[in-house]
Design goal:
The complex is a heterotrimer of chains A (about 675), B (about 475) and C (about 120).
Chain A (H helix, E strand, L loop, with lengths): L11 H26 L10 H24 L8 E2 L3 E6 L7 E5 L2 E2 L1 H24 L6 H20 L3 H19 L7 H31 L4 H9 L9 H21 L8 H4 L5 H10 L4 H8 L1 H5 L2 H22 L5 H21 L3 H28 L17 H15 L5 H16 L2 H28 L17 H16 L14 H20 L7 H26 L4 H9 L1 H8 L4 H47 L7 H21 L1
Antiparallel strand pairs in A: 1-4, 2-3
Chain B lengths: L2 H7 L2 H23 L6 H24 L5 E3 L4 E3 L1 H21 L10 H20 L3 H19 L6 H32 L10 H9 L1 H18 L7 H8 L2 H22 L8 H20 L4 H24 L5 H32 L6 H4 L2 H4 L1 H15 L5 H15 L3 H27 L16 H19 L2 H5 L2
Helix pairs in contact in B: 2-3, 2-5, 3-4, 3-5, 4-5, 4-11, 4-14, 4-20, 5-6, 5-11, 6-7, 6-11, 7-9, 7-10, 9-11, 10-11, 10-13, 11-13, 11-14, 12-13, 12-19, 13-14, 13-18, 13-19, 14-17, 14-18, 14-20, 17-19, 17-20, 18-19, 18-20
Chain C lengths: L5 H24 L6 H4 L18 H32 L3 H24 L8
Helix pairs in contact in C: 3-4
The chains are: A mainly alpha (about 675), B mainly alpha (about 475), C mainly alpha (about 120).
Chain lengths: ~675, ~475, ~120
């Protein structure tokens, strides 16, 4: 159970960004009214990044304080609890049938996520103050960005599932606002809408999952649910029906994760989300929001662990997504699209790890991925900035001379993403693959696909590096003058580069005979799920020899394919064109992400549209009119309609009412 | 009739129970009489406002008071906290419609007084419906609500569409009223009483419902209520009538009328055998599907809101189906529906109000085309409409979200999981058309054939009303305790 | 139960029989001379020919509605009048009288309203 609610200061962690957001919003409004008088006026918008960064720094400081406070406690007692905001109580106050208290809880898991969100978030805020300079909505941007951080922190700090949902929808809303930030271009507005609606499909699943949990446990407090999974909902204490319901709840919650974390089949919104400004892609669509699905599974780990079928499904979905994302990234020309599909693929890895019960490893990969993918996105942003908004890698090349700092930091990020030995990504990815290998059975197949995807990752990463920074300069020298970005943008890159390279020390593999710091840290949180898994199918730890072999294999694959990718494209994009000529079908299939998006428009969206039109025009008008008036007077009716009189419908409406009442009467008499 | 019953008719409790109704009735008469004298516009507006405030205050007093009158008038009318809460909701709904109707009727301004009287009378009808525990009392309330609305729907007499809307609403409404009377007659024929409390006792209820005649009667009653709350297949009138009626009146129809019919439906639930829950759920889902898909293809936001209102009625009906299925804590369903409707009144009332304000700017302002670029022209109005759209879509931190949450959770508790799944997924579709409004306002520039908006200042009453709606929507989303504690 | 309806049944049979017998007898005994006017359907003295869409003054409707409104008043007064004695014996006579006066008063307000608004003036 939770300790006494004595840490009111926890509320300040999310509240600081919220206040920052409100202040930036006020600045934006002030700027707007200043612009009514003088269209060129900047107003006080220049203050916005200062406010936003100050809010982030404050939140980071508090997150660090929370981390230190937790460290000072015994491992088993590492939970800080805030006073509750009594949100909803329905029914008799003494015994409400529905009671939600919003409280913030800091434990090792939320502390880790909180540090990533505020830390990486602060760096991206600083970067954005340079990147967005001169934009008409400068203050508005920071208002949205801070609001996003608020929602994200609510998501990871809330102990109630409904509080998580508030954050969950909040980050979705902010993501929508930020993807559509440059709506004047037209397509960002559509991409934003697509992202929001696709996410809502997942959110619907989340809602249903939480209804099921509420019905089962009578509460939405996740700490209580986890605790009860170890007491009155122990696996040997519940019957098959309850087990089925728990599996169903886990399944629906995972559906929610698929939406937010861009997994099969709901991943298609993420590549389109790249329409947003690049700092947004780095913060929301790489480092934080898209990992909330992983957070949710780890948070409710005993729930998932108790249904092996759902666990296998999670791994399967994860590995399939990893493969599709990785293979699609192979042929993309837009530098941000490569990174977007790479993110989809890496998130797939994390789910693969979750499905094997490697909760700690998934969080480890989440953290390192936040470092190196944020770095790569920001680096790409720096490139795009220096190239005057050019994103096509075929029109880049040789940039290492023009932007050396961006180049050097980008290399560090690429090395980490491709899993070159001793980089952070190497350790985290290897840990997931080792767990997959150790799970046996169908997981061997998953492992093979995982290794294949790792090879692709190394290949497309170094293809990207080669096309962007090496080879001949393919841009138009008259119009484009590549230049290094200002220090306010490159310093965050350097910090992230250091983290990407050294992040591996958080979780060294057992063969190094060093403590796995992150696993030890997270142990109290993931222990219930791990215990259930061990009870269901106990298996040995990998022997050191096997582990050395796996590590060596991972290193060899990464090095070999990184080399191949780099060598192939070092001279220019000619191989791409060769693929396009040689196997146009394959190139188009991969380039279009296995054509899943167009399949959607055929299978889901088109029928929906057709159905809506059928309802509107056929059922409402033709059928009803036809039923009553017969085909002969239909034409007359339509003509009347055309004249602006719809009076012919009245008798039809009455007929439907009468018929409806008759059918209902008969139905009730019969049932 | 014996003497003791006669005495109870005139007890203090009865007067206390009827006090809000008296306030509305006296107020309506006072406004009517005031129209005969050359009083100033302001004086008459103050009179309307005082009437509404008095009714609201009496209801709030009942909510906060230690004891409630309970069942009065020989068991035909109940005044408890739920009735009082409904009363508050109705006064808010009517108040909103009234505030937004100020300055709406340019060409019919000379009849503004009659307009206000009719609105107050409809509020009286709603309150009577919510408290009725007897079919005849309910019928009087229903007609007291409906007849003013027929007139109000046709209030823009020189517009063909408005007159058409009034006539359609009247004819179909009369048809539905016929259903109600016929159904009551059948129930009376079997049970020998018109009071709902015969259904309270399980034994007598089972006995009555054995008779197919009573079942048909209950079905006809339900049908006539379905007409008012616009549930399939009794919803067909909604788009035409909503579109044609003056927009403040449409707002009242969408919020007040619907809420009043739901208030009685929740009372009459006891009459529905639990075997009907499946059919209710199916009707609810069909309603949601037709409403959401119909809304998807609309270009006119008023029509879109009409279809969306159909979908929302479907959601509440799903919660009711859950309650009928035999949820042991039936109170949950009543509270969920109450909260949902309260949030819907604030949200849809505000949305129709904003549309009414825009309509004054020009005839085609309420199409998606006309809304383009509204965020730049009128940022505050656009912001308010955005909040309403988000609440209708059920985004957290708004009242619409919590309402939806509670209703669906009632359905899941009643083991109606497949229905809840379909319902939740259908509400995803809804986001599509609500977002289109937001995108049009904030993310699109006015096109070449977009109507030009005037820059007339918005009058104070409308500003207050929209601000109040936004505040209500957000308060119900963030701090709903007060509402929930008093339901 | 049903026996108690027997007198009504007998009464109905007599009434129907009388009407039918009259018609039959007059048809048998009477002399038939057909004229155009006689073959016309009976419409209370109105000419049944010509356009059905005769325009009537809107005042007809107003007067009709007002008539119904105040006609209903008397319907409510009758039950009160019938039970007035019983009510006063039960001790609620004054209060019920107050109520019925209130009812008439409300209608009076309506009448005043109509009058003042010119609803009773035929030529306007």
């Amino acid at each position: 159970m939770l300790p006494p609610p004595s840490h009111a200061w926890l509320w300040w962690i999310p509240l600081l960004p919220l206040i920052g957001s409100a202040l930036c919003g006020a600045l934006h409004l002030a700027t707007l009214s200043a612009r009514k008088r003088d269209p060129q006026a900047k107003g006080l918008a220049g203050l916005a990044p200062l406010i936003a960064c100050a809010a982030m720094a404050g939140a980071l400081a508090l997150a660090v304080k929370g981390f230190l406070d937790l460290r000072a406690l015994d491992a088993a007692a590492r939970v800080l609890n805030s006073p509750a905001w009594e949100w909803i109580t329905v029914g008799d106050p003494r015994q409400p049938w529905f009671d939600v208290d919003l409280r913030l809880v800091l434990d090792p898991l939320s502390s880790t996520l909180g540090l990533v969100i505020t830390g990486v978030g602060l760096l991206i805020h600083i970067y954005a103050s340079g990147y967005m300079k001169g934009d008409a909505g400068y203050a508005k941007f920071f208002a949205y960005l801070n609001l996003f951080v608020f929602a994200m922190l609510m998501l990871v700090l809330s102990s109630s599932l409904l509080g998580v949902f508030v954050g969950w929808e909040g980050v979705g809303l902010c993501s929508y606002l930020l993807i559509g930030f440059w709506y004047e271009k037209g397509w960002p507005a559509e991409a934003a809408q697509k992202a929001f609606i696709t996410n809502r499909v997942g959110d619907a699943c989340f809602l249903i999952g939480s209804f099921l949990l509420l019905r089962l446990f009578g509460t939405l407090d996740m700490h209580e649910i986890v605790a009860r999974m170890g007491s009155d909902f122990r696996l040997d204490a519940i019957d098959e029906n309850v087990k089925l319901n728990i599996a169903l709840a886990a399944l629906f919650l995972f559906g929610g994760c698929c939406g937010k974390s861009a997994q099969m089949p709901l991943f298609t919104w993420l590549p389109d989300a790249m329409a947003g400004p690049t700092p947004v892609s780095a913060l929301i669509h790489a480092a934080t929001m898209v990992t909330s699905g992983i957070y949710l599974v780890v948070r409710l780990n005993p729930l998932f662990a108790s249904s092996p079928a759902v666990m296998t499904l999670i791994s399967g979905v994860g590995v399939a997504t990893a493969l599709i994302g990785g293979s699609t990234a192979l042929v993309q020309r837009d530098i941000k699209k490569v990174l977007a599909y790479s993110t989809v693929s890496q998130l797939g890895y994390m789910f693969l790890g979750l499905g094997t019960g490697a909760f700690g490893a998934a969080v480890f990969h989440l953290v390192t991925h936040a470092f190196f993918k944020a770095l790569l996105f920001l680096g790409a942003g720096s490139v795009i900035h220096g190239m005057h908004e050019e994103q096509d890698m075929h029109k880049m090349g040789g940039l290492r001379k023009h932007m050396p700092q961006t180049f050097a930091t980008f290399l560090a990020g690429a090395a980490a993403l491709s899993g070159l030995p001793l980089m952070s990504g190497f350790f985290s990815k290897d840990e997931i693959l080792a767990h997959t290998f150790n799970s046996g059975g169908v997981y061997y197949a998953f492992w093979i696909v995982g290794v294949l995807t790792a090879a692709m990752t190394a290949y497309y990463t170094w293809r990207m590096v080669a096309l962007t920074f090496f080879g001949p300069e393919r841009f138009d020298h008259h119009h484009v003058h590549p230049h290094e970005s200002p220090a306010v943008m490159t310093v965050p890159l350097m910090v992230l580069a250091v983290l990407s390279v050294l992040g591996g020390v958080l979780g060294l593999p057992p063969v190094f005979h060093a403590a796995h710091a992150l696993n030890d840290w997270l142990a109290p949180v993931v222990a219930p799920g791990v215990a259930i898994l061990n009870q269901l199918h106990p298996h040995e730890h990998l022997s050191h020899a096997t582990e050395w072999v796996l590590l060596g294999l991972g290193a060899a694959v990464a090095l070999a394919f990184a080399h191949t990718g780099f060598r192939t494209y070092a001279a220019g994009p000619e191989p791409d064109l060769a693929i396009g000529r040689g196997a146009p079908g394959v190139a188009a299939f991969l380039g279009d992400a296995w054509s899943i998006d167009s399949a959607y428009s055929r299978v889901v969206i088109l029928p929906l549209r057709v159905f809506a039109f059928v309802v509107r025009f056929i059922v409402d008008q033709v059928v009803i009119d036809g039923l009553v008036n017969g085909a002969g007077s239909l034409a007359k009716n339509l003509a009347l309609r055309a004249r602006g009189m719809a009076s012919g419908q009245l008798d039809a409406y009455a007929l439907w009412m009468g018929g409806g009442a008759a059918v209902i009467s008969l139905w009730w008499m019969w049932s | 009739m014996n003497a003791s019953v006669l005495k109870t008719l005139f007890s203090d409790a009865a007067y206390a129970a009827l006090a809000p109704l008296f306030a509305l009735g006296i107020g309506a008469l006072a406004v009517l009489v005031a129209g005969l004298f050359p009083l100033g516009k302001v004086a008459r507006a103050v009179l309307v406002l005082l009437t509404l405030l008095a009714a609201a205050a009496l209801n709030v007093g009942m909510l906060l008071g230690d004891s409630v009158p309970g069942l009065v008038l020989d068991g035909t009318f109940v005044a408890d906290r739920t009735t009082a809460m409904w009363g508050v909701i109705f006064t808010i709904g009517v108040g909103l419609a009234w505030l937004f109707s100020r300055h709406y009727y340019d060409e019919d301004a000379s009849h503004q007084n009659e307009h206000d009287v009719l609105m107050l009378a409809s509020a009286l009808g709603m309150s009577l419906m919510a408290g009725a525990r007897d079919l005849i009392v309910f019928f009087i309330g229903l007609e007291l609500l409906s007849i003013p609305l027929y007139a109000l729907a046709a209030f823009r007499r020189n517009r063909a569409k408005s007159v058409e809307a009034g006539l359609k609403y009247f004819l179909l409404g009369a048809f539905a009223a016929g259903f109600f009377l016929y159904g009551s007659a059948l129930i009376y024929a079997v049970s020998g009483t018109l009071k709902l409390d015969v259904f309270a006792d399980p034994a007598s209820r089972a006995k009555i419902l054995e008779s197919p005649m009573a079942l048909v009667g209950v079905a006809m009653l339900t049908g006539s209520l379905f007409f008012k709350i616009s549930v399939f297949p009794f919803h067909l009138w909604v788009p035409d009538v909503y579109e044609g009626s003056p927009t403040p009146v449409t707002g009242l129809m969408a919020t007040g009328t619907k809420a009043a019919a739901f208030a009685f439906l929740l009372n009459a639930l006891l009459a529905l055998p639990s075997s009907t829950s499946t059919s209710l759920a199916i009707i609810a889902l069909i309603t949601m599907a037709l409403g959401n898909l119909g809304a998807l293809v609309q270009q006119d936001v008023k029509r879109m809101l009409a279809y969306s209102g159909i979908a929302h009625a479907g959601v509440v009906l799903l919660g009711i189906a859950g309650a009928v299925a035999g949820d042991p804590k039936q109170g949950g369903a009543v509270q969920a529906a109450l909260f949902y409707m309260a949030a819907y009144v604030a949200t849809a009332g505000g949305a129709f109000g904003v549309l009414a304000l825009l309509e004054r700017d020009g005839e085609r302002m309420t199409t998606l085309e006309g809304l383009k670029g509204l965020g730049q022209r009128r940022p505050y109005l656009a912001a308010a409409l955005t909040v309403f759209m988000l609440s209708l879509a059920g985004i957290p931190a708004t009242g619409g979200f919590l309402g939806k949450w509670m209703v669906f959770s009632v359905a899941v508790r009643a083991e109606m999981i497949p229905a809840a799944v379909v319902g939740v997924l259908l509400s995803v579709v809804a986001l599509g058309y609500y977002l289109r409004v937001i995108i049009a306002m904030w993310m699109q520039e006015p096109g070449e054939d977009s109507p030009l908006a005037s820059t007339r200042a918005i009058a104070l009453p409308a500003t207050l009303a929209s601000a109040a709606c936004v505040a209500l929507v957000l308060v119900m989303g963030l701090a709903p305790r007060w509402f929930l504690d008093h339901m | 139960m049903l026996e108690s309806y027997a007198p009504i049944l007998i009464y109905a049979a007599v009434v129907i029989g009388f009407a039918v017998a009259n018609l039959v007898i007059s048809d048998l005994l009477g002399r038939k001379r057909r004229t155009i006017d006689k073959d016309r359907p009976y419409e209370s003295g109105m000419t049944p020919e010509g356009s059905a869409r005769v325009r009537l003054s809107i005042h007809f409707y107003l007067v009709a509605v007002l008539f119904i409104l105040f006609d209903v008043e008397s319907i409510f007064l009758v039950p009160w009048a019938v039970s007035a004695r019983a009510l006063s014996e039960a001790g609620v006579g004054p209060i019920v009288f107050a109520e019925i006066s209130l009812f008439v008063g409300v209608l009076a307000i309506g009448l005043a309203y109509v009058w003042r608004k010119g609803g009773l003036e035929w030529d306007r």
